[in-house]
Amino acid sequence: MKLPLISEVLSNPALVSDLNLADWDVLVRQARRTGLLARLAETLKGSKWEASVPRQVRWHLEADHVLAERQKIAVRWEVSQIRDALMGLEAPVILLKGAAYVMAGMPAARGRLFSDVDILVPLEKINQAEAALMLAGWHAQAEDAYDERYYRLWMHEIPPMQHIRRGSVVDMHHAILPRTARYHPDPLKLRAAAVPIDSVPGLFVLQPVDMVLHAACHLFHDGELPHGLRDLSDMDLLLRYFGADRNFWTELPKRAAELELERPLFYALRYARYFFKTPVPIAVDVALNKAAPSLPYMMDAMFHRALGPEHDSYRDSFSRLARFAAYIRAHWLRMPPLMLARHLLHKALISRKEAPT
Fold this sequence. Notes:
Layout: H1 5-11, H2 21-34, H3 37-44, H4 55-85, E1 93-96, H5 97-103, E2 117-120, H6 126-135, E3 138-140, H7 145-154, E4 161-163, E5 169-173, H8 187-192, E6 195-196, E7 203-205, H9 208-220, H10 228-242, H11 246-258, H12 262-276, H13 282-287, H14 296-306, H15 319-334, H16 337-354
Parallel strand pairs: 1-7, 2-5
Antiparallel strand pairs: 1-2, 3-4, 4-5, 6-7
Helix pairs in contact: 3-4, 9-10, 9-11, 9-12, 10-12, 14-15
């Protein structure tokens, strides 16, 4: 398939100087659909290509840029409130994904939009942490009794917690993959290597290789990919940032093997390179050869479609099938076959029937 215009421009911003208004229309629509419009705005803002942005497009970019900046302020505030609420936990509280990028001041925070704050705490502290957050105004939001049981017995997190006044959402994890998943990265190893955030005493982020592995794990074990290209763009920025240290590339495949995450890392590097031209040393590819699937080009046919913009400018006759296949694959990796069949049956028939109209 032809690459999405948004990934081509983020990889090579000089391309905007050759775009006509019809191209810009496609670019803005793809960027908005993938959650990358603010990142596009930050990429062009202050650059030598900013003058190429047509007047009709500028307000779209500026609006999302302002939104992203306001969300960063909100995330910093929410993180400070979470830290205060969990001060007595006597265990490391580790920020994950977007909140970690913002609080650690990383390039992956550029133009990043947020729907929640993700944290990682030890399983043995999860009830204490939940109680502390409830006292601070957050409450679990399971859809029904089945979802409550599903989260607490089988998943790697409790139901999302929403603040009763501000509406902010905290996703509290005790691991990075479900207990029923095929792979079992040890959360103790992740916590042991976590790095303190200098600007926010009491909070931590994952070490660089673990941060990349968690991003890969999240992206290629999530059954729904509305922000797949945005998450892959995060991966591209993480790899370029951490990759300046040669030791990073040596340690990355070793740590992936230690945490049973070689396959998701293989996919993350393969598709970051495909969509964003991410530079990856050949030695890393060689180290991950054994993690390659038996039919990589079949996986390419699925992920080239499922990770791209869900927009008419990128869809073809197989796109819907590819997204459905990615959904089934992710759930297949998350739980055994019988449990998967029961879960999908419940979500398709029982939960839908019980949903309020």
